[in-house]
Design goal:
By secondary structure, this protein is mainly alpha-helical. The chain has one domain. The radius of gyration is 16 Å and the shape is elongated. It is built from 4 helices and no strands. It starts with a helix and ends with a helix. α1 runs antiparallel to α2, α1 packs parallel to α3 and α3 packs across α4.
Length: about 100
C-alpha cells in the first residue's frame, strides 16, 4: 500500500506538467513515477501487490514519507541547479526543446 501515495502524486504532477510544461515540474513528475514504480515492483516481488495489510495506516504513512523524501530530493536538485550555473543552463536549455 505504500506505493499509493507516490502513485497519486505522480498522477497529479502528470496533469500539472501537461498544462504548464516546465522542466522542474517534468523532473518532479519523473521522480514521483520512479518512486511509484519502485513501490509496485517491491510489492510484486514480495507477492503482496493488492493485499491490504493489517497495519494499512503504517503503510500509507510510509507512502507519505516516500513522497516527502522525493519532494526533498527535488528541492535539493533545484537548489543545486540555481547554484551551479552549468547545471542551471543545461536545465534551461532543455526547456526550449
Amino acid at each position: 500500500m505504500c506505493y499509493t501515495v507516490p502513485t497519486a502524486a505522480a498522477i497529479v504532477t502528470t496533469f500539472m506538467w501537461r498544462s504548464k510544461k516546465t522542466v522542474p515540474l517534468f523532473w518532479l513528475m519523473l521522480m514521483f513515477c520512479g518512486g511509484a514504480l519502485f513501490g509496485v515492483i517491491d510489492h510484486l516481488w514480495n507477492g503482496e501487490l493488492f493485499l491490504i495489510s493489517k497495519d494499512w495506516l503504517k503503510d500509507l504513512s510510509l507512502g507519505v514519507v516516500i513522497t516527502g523524501v522525493i519532494l526533498g530530493a527535488w528541492g535539493i536538485v533545484l537548489s543545486l541547479a540555481k547554484k551551479n550555473l552549468a547545471l542551471g543552463a543545461y536545465l534551461v536549455s532543455l526547456e526550449g526543446k
